[in-house]
Design a protein that fits this description.
186 residues; mainly alpha; Rna Polymerase Sigma Factor, Chain: A; 74% helix
């Protein structure tokens, strides 16, 4: 992540608010993206991502920064929260139009719906991947991380990341092609 994690973590353990803020600022976008592409709902993703940081504070004493990057630990927390979410919730993602949007002259419902459909399609396609493949795809193509960074976060070498990415893309391609064929008129 490009900062002295050990020092920052020690400051956080001593209760320094600035350290918490820095960890949050650096890690929240990645955690939010990870959660969003697992649950498919922006509001729910925001809630779950916030819960990750609440759990981080509660478990400060259990994490040793030398073991792995802070972000990798936060991904683990997020993973468990997402699993819990899916156990509790079995509902479809809906595209909602807010009343405020309709009064905004720059509002473009088609663009918003198109973006949400694309996100929804990705969320649906990701369900065909195993957990590691999902993590690699989100880290690579949503967060735009390098294979080296992904390897560091997931505890794998760069070659393994390339292999996982290749298999994941092949699986995604097959699932999207199958979905497209099911929508074609006979």
């Amino acid at each position: 992540m490009g900062f002295n994690e050990g020092s920052l973590w020690q400051q956080a353990r001593q209760g320094e608010k600035r350290a918490f803020v820095e960890i949050y600022d650096r890690c929240y976008p990645a955690i939010f993206n990870y959660v969003f592409y697992r649950v498919g709902d922006r509001d729910q993703a925001e809630d779950l991502a916030a819960e990750v940081f609440i759990r981080m504070v509660e478990k400060l004493h259990t994490f040793q920064p030398g073991d792995r990057p802070i972000l990798a630990w936060l991904y683990t927390i997020a993973y468990h929260l997402v699993i819990d979410f899916h156990r509790k919730e079995a509902r479809a993602t809906l595209v909602e139009l807010e009343e405020n949007d309709l009064s905004d002259p720059t509002y473009q419902p088609e663009a918003q719906i198109e973006e949400r459909i694309s996100q929804y399609q990705l969320v649906r396609a990701l369900r065909f991947l195993n957990e590691v493949q999902r993590q690699v795809i989100v880290l690579k193509f949503v967060e735009r991380r390098s294979n080296c960074e992904i390897g560091s976060l997931l505890g794998k070498d760069e070659g393994a990341i390339k292999s996982i990415q290749h298999r994941a893309i092949r699986t995604l391609r097959k699932s999207l092609e199958a979905e497209e064929q099911s929508y074609e008129p006979s």
